[in-house]
Design goal:
About 25% of the residues lie in helices and about 30% in strands. The chain is an alpha/beta fold. Keywords: Hydrolase, Signal.
Length: about 400
Amino acid sequence: MKKLLLVLLAWLGLQVAASAQIDTTGGRYYQPLFSNVTVTSGVVYGSAINFLGAVQPLAMDIYQPTGDTVSRRPVIIFAHQGGFVTGSRTDAYMVKVCTQFARLGYVTASIDYRLLFLPFDTVNIAKASIRGMQDMRAAVRFFRQDAATTRLYRANPRYIVVGGSSAGGFCALQVGYLDKASEVPGYVGLASLGGIEGQSGNPGYSSAVLAVLNLSGATESTSYIEPGNPPLCSVHGTADNVVPYFKGRVGSSLPPKYVVGSGLLNPRATAVGVPNTLRTLRGAGHIPFESTSANGLAYADTTFRTIRDFLRPLLRQPGTVLSTASGSRSAGQAPSAYPVPASNEIRLAVPRGTVFRPQEVELLDATGRVVRRFRWEEANQLLLREGLKAGTYLLRGEQLPTVRLLFE
């Protein structure tokens, strides 16, 4: 009887792990299984104060595979290019990429976010990027709120990805990796803008994401990317003279504003153990995948395939660990895990100033299976390999942001 009970519990555990993942069999999320896509235009996902001090409604277009019957589907939220000055959710490339991924089985969305800034200077373009980030976070929360209430779009709340082109890439990078107010330059006045989460709508839900898609984008510093952060996929041209591939100045008519692009962000991700893919477009300029020339169409196909191949394996892994309150996101307090990758042991250490409480933790493999349980007793503790296979693991605890570990 005892043996039967153990078998039953093990079976139930496998069912729970499987239900927490996305079914990718039958070519789903890889082949265009759906001929048609249903577009719901102008869905209002929030509102916020724009640079003029007026309340601006925020809308998105949502793309769904026509005839799909799956009850919980992964979501990709895209943001358009335009230097925080121009562009819209109906830009041709946004329509194209949202349609492509919806035909694979994803729910996709192209969002409008707050644009324009005056005076036209470094301080205000930085504020504009923060506003864009806040709006994208509200879009993430919108799908989580819908998943918890009406389920109109049948989104899986643990599998929400953000991505964007150029300025939209800035927004996505900040949603994924900007998680501490101390990382924002003081001149931006983050508190007056509503903090990192912002006030663009759908409070009470997490804005954490499964992964980040950075298409010709950049951000303030490589240090934003820390151990335990979501995976990163970047596509960037080496001859980009608008948003630097490595490090450089943005805004040709602005005072100097220096940012770091994919050529430095992805190596940083590798160094701290964040899974990542970098598709380098050698000799290509800014957002070449948005061009309708023969070369542009080829770049667009490369970009599509890069994103597709990057995302699909993530769907077979445990999704984002969620908190119920928008302000309780603790990614910024994630413990350190080093070296990356490790051979025989990994040192776990909580950030300075963080109150450490001993707790029971679990180690999960890439399939979501619990391979070890142990008690984390000290703020600085060694985790011995002890027969674990090479690969990526997740460390999970009730009072602990999920931490990714890597053994070689």
